[in-house]
Amino acid sequence: MVTEQRALFIIFGGTGDLAKRKLYPALFNLYRKGFLKENFAVIGTARRPWTDEHFQEVVRDAIHAEGALLKDTSRFASHFYYQSHNVNDTEHYTTLRNLAEKLDQKYEIGGNRMFYLAMSPRFFGTIAKHLKSQKIVTAAGYNRVIIEKPFGRDFASAEELNEAIGRYFPEKDVFRIDHYLGKEMVQNILAVRFGNNLFRALWNNRYIDNIQITLSESLGVEERAGYYETAGALRDMVQNHILQIVSLLTMNMPASYSETDIRREKIYALKSLRKYTPEEVEKNFVRAQYKAANGQRGYREEEKIADDSSTETFVAGKLFVDNENFSGVPIYIRTGKRLSQKTSRIDIAFKAMPTNIFAPQRLGQNVLTINIEPEGKIFMQINVKKIGQGFTLKNSHLDFFPTSNGESTFPEAYEKLFADALAGDATNFTHWEEVAHSWKFVDTIRDTWDKQNDVLEEYPCGSMGPQASDKLLERDGCKWFYQGKNN
Ligand SMILES: NC(=O)C1=CN([C@@H]2O[C@H](COP(=O)(O)OP(=O)(O)OC[C@H]3O[C@@H](n4cnc5c(N)ncnc54)[C@H](OP(=O)(O)O)[C@@H]3O)[C@@H](O)[C@H]2O)C=CC1
Ligand SMILES: O=C1O[C@H](COP(=O)(O)O)[C@@H](O)[C@H](O)[C@H]1O
């Protein structure tokens, strides 16, 4: 259901890459669909001295609209205002407050404010403090703050950051973005699990043999060398996106489909992640870096990357969630840059039949795949009879494409998350305790790696990672279901 929302957005980092690539197009889609109409305005802030006109041009360019949509684009962009602002300068906040009040009146917004922190996290504390002390938060409407990742670089820094924000904004007004939670197929995990008795019954350690999560990218580090060198794949993808997916796959059934109940169960699942000793980390986690191959340069040859960089661009691991339903089920995860293809997918492999009445024919394994990207689909491998005389079995696919029933194409994750935040629904944002448990788990791995002096493994660009990643599963008699291109 589309409900029109009134809000003043203040985007810190309004000239940045994220704002241009994701935020403005997402807001435009909400405008086209009627979530935003006349009663909204956007203030973009950053240090460079742009005019409103230039800012509106940047916004129009960011949207890439064509044809009939061009008219909408101009009307939409007319709601955008630019304020040159250094977040460390207290006086600038007075100018910002005056502009915010003026726009609030002009567009009859009623005091609702959405502060989007699309900047380096080192500024979050000071922005939160000034929003309060300079009275940019209102008494009349809501005041919500949307925070981009990375939320800290370990548990200690995340806790510090959380305290800095929590001093000024209560948890209910803090919306920590993990854009994977806005993806249609990630949201489908709960639909499949808790909307089908079939799967509810099977979704446990009695029937599931192992789970595999692959978030592979064909792109390299691109323009984000500075950030990536301090993060690496473990902090960039595992601490947030992968562990969020793990929590959705392994959480107990919530009492209701509500923010409080879902978050409670996710927190419990993340708290149940088994913490490894350093020896167990070495045995169960693999890290590696891409090297030149297939016409693509290696990580250390990328611009602004040190030639002796030891940052991992690939991680594979085996982990466990020791709750009642999942203890004993290995969850294999992997993510990396410059792999053979962009693919995000989850494979859930079920245990073999206890007896095989068709022997000596072999039964194929039942595998449920939730394909997140590039194509959103769900498919299941099941054994069926081959048409004709005799009784021969074959392994076949049951496919479901959410977009093939005349339903529209998927909205972009940022668009869905913006709409949720406007509605005050934080179900698909991460609660502080989720972040905290995820960091505690990741810290044990990072600490072990930081103390090791061994040479980082390498994998060729265009492959699916180092051999050690395959061996991790072979050791347990398994293999990655997704083998890269053409699979
Ligand atoms: N880009 C992406 O795809 C993703 C980004 N993120 C996160 O989003 C955040 C922003 O990323 P991104 O847009 O790529 O970064 P950019 O470097 O492109 O943008 C940073 C922004 O901050 C502004 N800025 C820097 N210093 C100040 C200051 N002292 N006062 C006011 N403004 C300042 C810059 O503008 P100016 O120089 O004019 O001041 C610019 O608008 C980061 O936390 C990043 O990790 C998360 C996921 C994906
Ligand atoms: O958060 C991040 O995610 C992207 C991958 O997101 P996707 O939606 O394209 O799958 C990744 O490239 C980036 O390094 C990371 O910061």
Description of the molecule:
This protein has helices at 17-32, 52-63, 69-77, 90-106, 124-133, 155-166, 184-195, 197-202, 225-250, 259-271, 278-284, 413-422, 432-451, 467-474, and strands spanning 5-12, 36-46, 80-84, 113-117, 143-147, 174-176, 208-216, 285-291, 314-319, 331-336, 343-350, 367-373, 377-385, 393-400, 457-460. It folds into two domains: 5-148, Rossmann fold, CATH 3.40.50.720; 181-474, Dihydrodipicolinate Reductase, domain 2, CATH 3.30.360.10. The chain is built from 14 helices and 15 strands. Helices cover 37% and strands 21% of the residues. With 487 residues, it is α/β, with parallel strands linked by helices. Helix 1 packs across helix 12. It is globular. NADPH dihydro-nicotinamide-adenine-dinucleotide phosphate binds at residues 13-18, 46-48, 85-88, 118-121, 148-150, 227.
The molecules bound to the chains, other than polymers, are: NADPH dihydro-nicotinamide-adenine-dinucleotide phosphate, the ligand O=C1O[C@H](COP(=O)(O)O)[C@@H](O)[C@H](O)[C@H]1O
What is the total tally of β strands?
15
- Rg over alpha carbons: 24 Å
Q: Class of the largest domain in CATH?
A: Alpha Beta
Name the CATH superfamily classification of the largest domain: Dihydrodipicolinate Reductase, domain 2
Low-confidence blocks of residues: none
| Number of separate domains | 2
What portion of the residues fall into strands of 2 or more residues? 15-25%
Order of helices and strands: EHEHHEHEHEHEHHEHHHEEEEEEEHHEH
Number of helices: 14
- First and last CA, distance: 37 Å
CATH fold category name of the largest domain: Dihydrodipicolinate Reductase, domain 2
How much helicity do the residues have? 25-40%
Overall mean pLDDT score?
A: 95
CATH architecture of the largest domain: 2-Layer Sandwich
Biggest sheet, strands in spatial order?
14-13-12-11-7-10-9-8-15
Described by strand count, sense and barrel closure, the largest sheet is: 9 strands, mixed
- Specify the structural class: alpha/beta
The rough form would be described as globular
Catalytic activity: D-glucose 6-phosphate + NADP(+) = 6-phospho-D-glucono-1,5-lactone + NADPH + H(+)
Domain Glucose-6-phosphate dehydrogenase C-terminal: 190-480
Enzyme class: oxidoreductase
Domain Glucose-6-phosphate dehydrogenase NAD-binding: 10-188
